[in-house]
Amino acid sequence: MLQSVVVVLVGVISILSDFFLRMSYFGTRRSDRDEDSAGAILFFLGLIAAILAPIAATLIQLAISRKREFLADATGALITRYPEGLARALEKISADPNPLRVANNSTAHLYIASPFRGKERTNWFIKLFMTHPPVEERIKALREMSV
Question: Which candidate, 38, 44, 58, 47, places its Cα nearest to that of 18?
């Protein structure tokens, strides 16, 4: 449900940016300089929105995916009533040194831990584009539940 709302909001932003872009390009042609400058401003705003809308949509989708990983961990801890066991399981899964051969960005969100082992960095900018939160953060959150 939440993903649907996000998709609709981003779609509205994309449609509005396309509307401004087309309105400024195909708008009325008059010799008045004020309207020409307004058309240029609308064109510029539409162009910026058309470029930023897909980036914003991706960032929102990935942020929701990361938050849902924490929610899944918390739900698993509530169901099993043993968050320490889940934390140890995550440690074992993340300790596997073998990367997946066919890891793909489009299916990365389906894995328990990030399938891109060895290619992960913890830079704040890189974290924006991760489908999973770092395993260390997930383990820390699970261990805080058991205290």
Answer: 47
Three-state SS across the chain?
CHHHHHHHHHHHHHHHHHHHHHHHHHCCCCCCHHHHHHHHHHHHHHHHHHHHHHHHHHHHHHHHHHHHHHHHHHHHHHHHCCHHHHHHHHHHHHHCCCCCCCCCCCCHHHCCCCCCCCCCCCCHHHHHCCCCCCHHHHHHHHHHHHC
Rounded to the nearest angstrom, the gap between the alpha carbon of residue 140 and the centroid of all alpha carbons in its chain is 22
The pTM score is 0.64
**Single-letter code of the amino acid located at 81:** R
Distance from C-alpha of 129 to C-alpha of 59, rounded to nearest angstrom = 7
pLDDT given at position 121: 58
- What is the number of domains present in the chain? 1
CB 124 within 8 A of CB 143: no
**Tokens for 59?**
């960032």
Q: Which amino acid is at 41?
A: I
Taking residues 78-93, report their average pLDDT. 93
Q: Are 100 and 106 in contact (CB under 8 A)?
A: no
